[in-house]
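Researcher: Quick sanity check before group meeting.
Model: Go ahead. Protein one:
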Amino acid sequence: MLARGRAKVPVVFQFLISPTLAEHNQTTSSYEITDPRLIWTREINLIGWRSYLGREPGGTDVLAYTAPARAENLATARAGATP
């Protein structure tokens, strides 16, 4: 999104399937996937977001460039956030 927003590099494809798209961690599947043998559980996702943000996730000041699921519209150049 940042590359597209800056319009310096043409973006031809986005593959948005990672659990790191949103820091809210409130999806049904985030609660259902509890097997500790799995690589990316809800607990690990929370640790990842805490590490990335330097605080608890879910604040109102998190930009769409940080958490793409917060974007108002993924089709727009600015995606609802500023760098």
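Researcher: Fine. The other one?
Model: Protein two, sequence then structure:
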Amino acid sequence: MYDDEEYYYRKRHRRKLYRSPNGLIFGVCEGLSDYTGISVGLIRFLAIVTFIISGFAPIGIIYLLMAIFIPSRY
């Protein structure tokens, strides 16, 4: 396990999911990129591809719900 100092450091510095104020549309993809460490271009590409493949509605609704419920960073 962890010693006490490392445990409290990890607890204080855990990553949180936020929307980025610098993003294109609501900052959801930019926030996911910051959280996961994956390129924002790749996340946007995957979002657009799944948006087209799924018939627009399911991913569009999920994206809007994420924009509503994920807090903005600032």
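Researcher: One line on it for the slide.
Model: The mean pLDDT is 82.
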